[in-house]
Amino acid sequence: MDIQGIASTITLSGFAQSLATAIQKAAWNARRLQLPHPDLEQLQTDPFLALQTWFTQIERMASGKRFLLCLDEFERLSELIDATNSRAPLNFLRHLMQHCPQWILLFSGSHTPDELDPYWSDYLINTQSLHLTYLEEPEARELILKPVEKFPEIYHPQAVDRIVELTACQPYLVQLTCLLVVDRLNQKSRELTGKRGTAIPEFQATREDIDGLISKVLEVGGMYFRELWTKTLSDRERDFIQDLMAGTVDPGNQRLIKKLIKKQVIAEVEPGNYQIKVPLVQHYFQSVLTDDYPSS
């Protein structure tokens, strides 16, 4: 479930109905499982009691089955809580975790529990945290060279090295860069042949081609970079980044440094010496700090 979209509603009944609709669509798309409809009238009057009743119906319909409910960008629920002045959505989710063993909840987001408002701790008390990191270099190279079976050899070895270097194996940035490489080679093929859909094995991206795409990556991936700068980082962390890039960082601020390392924004290259972990992210930070970043 994309909580960013579901939580855009400003009412509890609207959230409950959107959540139920999203669950029905996901069950059908993933498993061709047709779930019953919730009581729409009760959703309006007592939305979370209606959801509890509906979840019980689903459990009875699929006795012996277990359901994984993944709530992506779960921290957006804070916006709904602020808009409604009610923590009923979190009470409902905690009820599921404690009393409905057929349901497994997975909360995914870009914020760690200690970065959320204090009230969250009461509702996530029974959860376990799992930190997802970047790809290993062999995995990134496989993603670049073999995203699908029989993928043509479109990269010069130095181009692959450059993608790994620029992205630090961050999976989204690897795939975005590769997408733009394929688009560029397809465009080159059409320009040379005048035909759409021409195979492109005879063209290979070079290291220079990858460098030439940096500004395009920053433009096309603008939402990712802006989210990182404006939402993932706090004011103090942005100040630290600015000092780091200016060469005036205070290495004694270990608590802040450890948080930025955990967020994989910076890396310690040697004791007491830090740098931005992902070169593409550093390019974006530099453009922001010089007011020279690509428009959306």
Description:
57% of the residues lie in helices and 7% in strands. It contains 16 helices and four strands. The strands form two sheets. The protein has a two-stranded parallel sheet. Strands 3-4 form a two-stranded antiparallel sheet. A hairpin with a 2-residue loop joins strand 3 and strand 4. It is globular. The two termini are 26 Å apart. The model has no long low-confidence stretch (mean pLDDT 90).
Summarize this, please?
Helices cover 57% and strands 7% of the residues.
Could you list some keywords that capture this structure?
296 residues; mainly alpha; Arc Repressor Mutant, subunit A; 3 domains; two-stranded parallel ribbon; two-stranded antiparallel ribbon; 16 helices; 57% helix; globular
Q: How many domain units?
A: 3
Task: Describe the global form.
Answer: globular
**What is the structural class?**
mainly alpha
The secondary-structure element order is: HHHHEHHEHHHHHHHHHEEH
Report the total helices: 16
Poorly predicted tracts of residues: none
- State Rg: 23 Å
Describe the main β-sheet briefly: 2 strands, parallel
Mean pLDDT, rounded to whole units? 90
Q: Give the terminus-to-terminus CA distance.
A: 26 Å
How many beta-strand elements?
4
Q: How are strands sequenced across the largest beta sheet?
A: 1-2
Task: Please report which band the strand proportion falls in: under 5%, 5-15%, 15-25%, 25-35%, 35-45% or over 45%.
Answer: 5-15%
Write the layout of secondary structure elements.
Blueprint: H1 3-6, H2 12-31, H3 40-45, H4 47-61, E1 67-72, H5 77-84, H6 88-99, E2 103-108, H7 120-123, H8 137-145, H9 157-167, H10 171-193, H11 207-212, H12 214-220, H13 222-232, H14 235-246, H15 254-262, E3 266-270, E4 273-276, H16 279-289
Parallel strand pairs: 1-2
Antiparallel strand pairs: 3-4
